[in-house]
Amino acid sequence: MSSELEAVLRPLLGEVTVENLTTLTGGASRTTSAFDAVAADTRSRLILRTGPPDEVHAGMELEARAQQRAAAVGAPVPRIVTADNDPAALGNPYLICEAIDGETIVRRIHRSLDDAGRARLLTQCAEALAAIHRADPRDIGLTETDQLAEWRDRLDEMGDSTATFEWAFRWLAAHRPAPTPHRLVHGDFRMGNLIVDGTGLAAVLDWELVHVGEIYEDLAWFCIRAWRFGAAERLGAGGLGSVEDFLTAYEAASGETLDRSAFRWWLTVATLRWGVICRYQAERHLSGQTPSVELAAIGRRVCETEWDLLDLLEGGGPR
Question: Which among 73, 98, 123 is the end of a domain?
Fold first, then answer.
């Protein structure tokens, strides 16, 4: 791989040698590696992401274009070096970007923060999301999605469901709030997809689910229980602070006025989405497609998500 990478980088960086190529842990859908690109008088620390194309994730070139649009309006993202959907050079489509120092493991981040640090990071997350939603989504190949229909279809494809999921889908379809203007949506903005350093939020990662949709989708996804990683209920926004503080910080950064009832509807959609994902991951194991103790364990979390949905729907649904 090193010689192939050198061939990719030479037209961009000149004569370089690839050193210290190492595959990193983490990343469920794509392989991530770190390496140094060494020229006569410079050493650049870079990240390589590769993975086969599929119907779910954005292509590498689209990821790169979306990140560049977000960077143009102030969102903290890694600088893109190059991206290509053609697998010819490296065996799979690829994206190469600069490496950014910091931590991504959420429990370590939580342990490193005091109350002031959590509040600061929560505000920075809201500001980053507001910047992403300001980015121009036009003419770069983004698709629009209907989240409720998409996850309904995903569940139906498995030929399996639960009474709680069915009730949630029906309630959500019957009580959908008025649509809001569509913007560029990250699609997986959450703790675990952020780099955090000593000053707070350093970069937003993992743009493979980027699309056009409603801003509430990103806001709600950040706040489901799974992305608190065991933090207290009162820290409902990413384990950093209250949901209300997060929404207020977003309003201050974006100039938007958020409808709390619409947010609660989207929080229910986000929770249901996570439940379907857990069931899908279990199916990958149960079907024999990808035998994995980890996938089987994720499947056991379906019941946790059902509990959260019942809690959200208690008394007839979000208020």
Answer: 98
Q: Which of 104, 48, 92, 62 is nearest to 210 (CA)?
A: 62
Taking only the tens place, the pLDDT of each residue in 63-103 is: 999 999 999 999 999 999 999 999 999 999 999 999 999 99
Residue type at position 92: N
**Cα distances (Å, whole numbers) of residue 202 to 12, 66, 87, 100, 212:** 25, 18, 30, 7, 24
Q: What is the CATH number of the domain that holds 40?
A: 3.30.200.20
Q: Which domain holds residue 151?
A: 106-313
Q: Has residue 319 been placed in a domain?
A: no
Do 239 and 290 lie in one domain? The reply is yes
How confident is the model over 277-300, as pLDDT tens digits? 999 999 989 889 889 898 899 999
User: Model pTM?
Assistant: 0.94
Give the β-pairing of 94-98 and 194-197: unpaired
